[in-house]
Design brief:
There is one protein chain. By secondary structure, the chain is α/β, with parallel strands linked by helices. The chain has a single domain, classed as Alpha-Beta Complex (Spore Coat Polysaccharide Biosynthesis Protein SpsA, Chain A). Helix content is 28%, strand content 29%. The strands form three sheets. Strands 1, 4, 5, 6, 8, 9, 10, 11, 12 and 13 form a ten-stranded mixed beta sheet that branches. A two-stranded antiparallel ribbon has the order 2-3. A two-stranded antiparallel ribbon has the order 7-14. It is globular.
């Protein structure tokens, strides 16, 4: 099965660490974040992987060649000329995918989420997209109805709110985990440009089923900051 790892980001929240190397190559328990993401996907059967690259491309290719030599099947989507954000990056990689649903996974996410259960739930639902979500601290949340369907987005810090139905009454907040299962028909609904997948889901949610997959048990970490990176290192070292 196919999957995409988003690894092209600049990693600016990591400060000095991302000046010397891309965030995909930060070390955790003796392995790069990219290696851990590949292992997570491959262990769940998503062993045909495309990785987008932009920041420090030569270092990224060195690591990718190591992984290829160890048996990982990895295709590269080169964004060194222009960083395309998540939706733009996915659209650029369109030809890689076939006629089956696939997983998109951010390289800076670490979790024991059951990808197979999420994938099967997506297939059974017939949704255009299924987004992993979690009740966790934060400022930006998806708004979902009682059936788990995405109906909007809210920034509690700025009080900005977008809804795909008339009112946010009855909707609950949940954090997006940066992991999603997508049906290939989504490509026919994607405009060209540089934009995020979250903005795409908000655009499509009015007329399409964008579902969520809640995973409140187990662990989930975003290693996008030095503090979070240390948290995941300590947790996995146990």
């Amino acid at each position: 099965m196919k999957a995409m790892i988003f690894a092209a980001g600049l990693g600016t929240r990591l400060g000095e660490l991302s000046r010397e190397r891309p965030k995909a190559l930060v070390e955790i328990s003796g392995k790069s974040a990219l290696r851990l993401a590949c292992e997570k996907l491959a262990s769940s059967g998503f062993d045909d992987i495309i990785v987008n690259i932009h920041h420090h491309p030569s270092l990224m290719m060195e690591e990718i060649e190591k992984l290829r030599n160890e048996g990982f099947k990895i295709t590269v989507s080169d964004e060194t000329g222009e960083l395309l954000d998540t939706a733009g990056g996915l659209l650029k990689a369109r030809r890689f995918f076939a006629d089956e649903p696939f997983v998109c996974y951010s390289v800076d996410i670490f979790t024991d989420l059951d990808l197979n259960d999420m994938y099967n739930r997506h297939v059974k639902s017939g949704a255009l997209a299924t987004l992993a979500t979690r009740h966790r601290p934060g400022t930006r949340f998806l708004l979902v109805d009682k059936n788990g369907r995405m109906c909007g987005w809210r920034n509690v810090a700025t009080r900005e709110e977008i809804t795909t139905k008339g009112s946010s009454s009855g909707l609950s907040e949940t954090g997006f985990s940066s992991i999603q299962v997508l049906s290939p028909s989504i490509f026919d609904k994607m405009p060209e440009g540089i934009y995020s997948l979250t903005s795409l889901y908000l655009m499509l949610a009015r007329e399409n089923r964008i579902m969520t997959y809640l995973h409140d048990t187990g662990y989930w970490f975003d290693c996008g900051t030095p503090a979070n990176l240390e948290k995941i290192r300590k947790y996995l070292s146990r």
